[in-house]
């Protein structure tokens, strides 16, 4: 019987996950289908119960359900618990178990370009769901320091205080981070500032950027945000959010099927849809 997979969110029409996963199912000749499901917040509990009843094989969870789904599942893994968010659910013998592949997806993309994080000084801009996923993943992978800068500094402080690893982490305002920017080897922009349709904005000034830094923006629409454009003009290496998106999907696919998919194929597929080239 055909296996059913889905992504739950609201809105959901923009999601490129169905395109990416259905292409993989057909490429690997798997009898499966991945469907976008628009689920309102007030219907999430009913939706999860219904999906479990019909024996869904697995699903992704996106905005605004990544945290609120947790009490509706049968269990979550340790990283998802630390992050406080689930983006991938696997039906394991009738039990719905939640995982978070956003942080590991970001890390997998980084490792293509920076083989070791040992000794690196990292700045994360933002303290929302994506920042939490990236923070809790990075602190386990050897950097010397991971600072968090956010418009609402209290949220950055709460995040670094939740960390149980012995790593140096400071919570900074956007202004403070801008002044100290030259200290960082890696900068990760995780706010929605610069995302389509308001594309001419950036969260902080890059005037103090170290030209040897690698600058990430996890936005992928547009493929080159104002933040990345300014970083490129300063001579830094830049990376957009495509790799994080593709690898989070690849890790979810592997959890569902046991197959480690062709990430290059997934990337080309997504880029074709976005009408751009990789950066
Ligand atoms: P979220 O939980 O709502 O967090 C939003 C963050 O943006 C918070 O830190 C918030 O600061 C900050 N922010 C919002 N408006 C701001 C403004 N006007 N000025 C300064 N800071 C502002 O959202 P999220 O789920 O983390 O997603 C954030 C972005 O990441 C989105 O663009 C999303 O598309 C992208 N994303 C990409 C991937 C990928 O695979 N590439 C995966 C997940 C998310 P406050 O705390 O002060 O409100």
Give the structure's gist in a few sentences:
With 279 residues, this protein is α/β, with parallel strands linked by helices.
Write the SSE topology.
Blueprint: E1 3-9, H1 17-27, E2 32-38, H2 44-53, E3 58-61, E4 75-76, H3 78-83, E5 88-92, E6 95-99, H4 102-111, E7 121-125, H5 129-138, E8 145-149, H6 153-162, E9 171-172, H7 174-179, E10 186-189, E11 214-217, H8 226-233, E12 237-239, H9 242-257, H10 263-274
Parallel strand pairs: 1-2, 1-3, 4-6, 7-8, 7-10, 8-9, 10-11, 11-12
Antiparallel strand pairs: 3-5, 5-6
Bound molecules: NADP nicotinamide-adenine-dinucleotide phosphate (NAP).
Can you name the CATH architecture of the largest domain?
3-Layer(aba) Sandwich
**Rg result:** 19 Å
Proportion of β residues?
Answer: 15-25%
The CATH superfamily name of the largest domain is: NAD(P)-binding Rossmann-like Domain
CATH class of the largest domain: Alpha Beta
